[in-house]
Description:
Layout: H1 6-25, H2 29-44, H3 51-61, E1 65-74, E2 77-85, E3 91-97, E4 103-108
Antiparallel strand pairs: 1-2, 2-3, 3-4
Helix pairs in contact: 1-2
Amino acid sequence: MSPFPPRRLHRLVGRVLALGLLAALAGGPLHASEDADRARRALERGEIRPLDAVLEAARAAVPGDVVSVDLKHDEGRWLYKLRILGADGKRRTVKVDAGTLKILNEDDDD
């Protein structure tokens, strides 16, 4: 059973699928669909947290506008890699554990 009410889960899955569409438009249509399916299943199983929660955690650590989001399964856990453009014009990369929302690291890209 999902830890989310059905209506909320439906909205969250829609957001994850929208990210897959964005990835497809960015140049990877064949893999983006597979990635979106994997992300949807991980969310339904409770292995990853909703994207809204991930964005909130990342913005709390590094304020700014999120310009890209990437979800990967690495060494047995799901990780979000976000690029955030700060008010100072610097782009930063933030890695977030998708299950716990723990900020794993943050680096300046510039």
